[in-house]
Design goal:
The chain is an alpha/beta fold and 230 residues long. The chain contains 7 helices and 8 strands.
Length: 230
């Protein structure tokens, strides 16, 4: 795996780092938590990922753009989520994705969406809302989100989705918070929904809590989705 060049892209308030493969390859789009694009690319390289291009979107309004509907704070020191995922997803597919694809030297073999925490929730949500992506990797996705299991049960997954990787820390459902403690049960349920639709699906349980080895966990998920053949 190697990058021919790093392409910077500015689109409105979002800065995109494109680690561009030297030939036609899959494109993985990742919403960054704290500007960890280079760290993730290095982790993917260390993990032995097949050739791919990585587009890292920075400047995400986390509690708005990654959340599907409004919820109040889930703990005393938390902030509310405002539920702007639909508006942001429209911008992603109508504006940002075409710019990313145009910046590549050749059309990608396919597009995948990856994310950690709330961005992992967004990646799963997007699988129900757009046909842009055919694969997803959700690392410690916030699938505890209130009413998300009901949404996932009632709605149709895009027929374009063929591969999905989920991962979670084995301590994440032991926080004492009634919302967060549902994350493992909810994740396993949603994995069963994807698998039941004939989607090649994997769930990997990592040792530790939500905050450990984020880049390495995401790299493992990205490697897995890249390695799956049609």
């Amino acid at each position: 795996m190697n990058a021919e060049k790093l392409i910077p892209l500015q689109t409105g308030d979002k800065t995109v780092q494109i680690f561009c493969a030297h030939k036609s390859a899959p494109l993985v789009v990742y919403h960054a938590v704290r500007g960890e694009g280079k760290k993730l690319w290095n982790a993917c390289e260390k993990a032995g990922c097949p050739d791919f291009s990585l587009a890292v979107i920075n400047g995400v309004n986390w509690d708005d753009e990654m959340t599907p509907w409004p919820i109040p704070p889930i703990s005393e020191n938390d902030t509310p989520c405002t539920g702007g995922a639909d508006a942001y997803l429209s911008r992603l597919t109508d504006e940002i994705m075409p710019q990313i694809v145009s910046a590549l030297p050749s059309a990608p073999e396919y597009c995948a969406l990856a994310g950690y925490s709330l961005a992992g929730l967004f990646a799963v949500y997007a699988a129900y809302k757009t046909d842009w992506f055919s694969r997803l990797a959700s690392g410690s996705g916030s699938l505890w989100y209130p009413e998300f299991v009901q949404f996932a049960t009632k709605n149709r997954i895009s027929e374009e989705i063929s591969v999905a990787h989920f991962s979670l820390g084995d301590e994440e459902s032991h926080t004492g918070n009634p919302y967060l403690d549902s994350v493992e049960d909810n994740t396993r349920y949603i994995v069963s929904l994807f698998s039941g639709k004939g989607i090649r699906t994997a769930l990997y349980m990592n040792r530790g809590n939500h905050y450990q080895n984020q880049a390495e966990r995401m790299a493992a998920g990205i490697r897995w989705i890249l390695e799956q053949t049609p």
